[in-house]
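Follow-up to my earlier ticket, as requested here are the two runs.
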Amino acid sequence: MHRLALLLFMLIGLALPNAALAQTDHRLLTRFLAEIPAAELFEGADRYGAPLPDLAAAPVLRGDETVGYAFVNSDFVGTTGYSGKPIHILIALDEAAVVQGVRLVQHSEPIVLIGIPEARIAKLTAGFKGRDIAAEARGEAEHPLEIISGVTVTIMVIDDSILRSSLRVARALDLGGLGRTAAPEVPRVEIDPEAEVTGD
């Protein structure tokens, strides 16, 4: 009986990783992929593939070729904005870990909803296209950041979450040769909530 129990325990232990993989939450990803056509997120793409079973990311396809991967920043890192609610951004990376598309898909930032035109924030977010995540992770590229007065916290959360979530996906999928351990973790940006009040 003891041996049988031990065998069952070992079999359950071996099954646990697969069970964990099966529980990857794709709800945000599938929701936003349904709203944003692949061609709008990644130039030349024609569709998305099925989300990966063990990662909240979906292949971006051109015909039968996988040209990159799409994912939502908030599935990988904290994205809480000035409102106290997450800022959701849909991102596409190519095989070299270069950002090919960024779309601000949902937020609750009060200053954007009632003050700063949302189109201005959306344009700034889209401007992350072309950023080389692998080069930044290796310290081989500058990291310019445009600040819009009055929405400092929002912009810093957008910038920080795009970089860190992209790095995590690139590592998981070995995009740009990063692998899981090839580059150090990018430190989280420390945000001062008072900055939003002053616009500094």
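Run two:
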Amino acid sequence: MKNTLIRNILALAIAGGVSLSATSALAQGGSDAFNRPRLGTRWVTTSGSLSISNHKLVGTSLSLGYLTASSHDTAASAVVFLGSTDLEYGAVALGDIAGGSNAFVKIQAQNGAGTFDHAAFYTGNNGSGNFFTLSSPVPSPATLDVFFCGTVATMRITSSAGVQTYTNDYGTTYTAGGGLGTYGSVGIDNYVGFHGACTSAPVHGVPASSMPHDTDLSLAK
């Protein structure tokens, strides 16, 4: 079942314009379906505590870790599940996560409605950056794809409600590396990392700077 879900993610990436063929500039790197009882040593936790529960990655609030097999990855995808109506986020991190020099791209639920309603292009571990309200609420689960074209990061959110795409110019490039971050009772499944150039990925999206900004409640706790 987990392998089928990973194949579905790859098919979704292809449908969204990401080519994963042998001749593509974007090739699959590290992946994890979390289909086991313990996280193991492939994941290195840099903050908080990460573990596996019900075949999903879970963690304490403000947890962050990276997959050693994603050391060459410059893009990543994961499926984010809300666990309740509390304050929650799931994040994909790209860059030198151990050193704190990474992009931290998250989708967040903070309105108590049981849907994702906000997102952010941050740095480090839920650090500063661009936090904004999504154009419309996103039901759980949602697939979060994150990739770079030069200094511009693209966040693509795919759910039963459709696709929303946002971009943010970080003004800098990050080294390779991929991981995940958690807050609240969120669960994350089917992580897939990729490496290669942005020429094989779509770059169109709404600039995050043009979206309505809001107060990030995850920074107030």
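The only thing I checked on run two: Residues 1-24 have pLDDT under 50 and may be disordered. Let me know what else you need.
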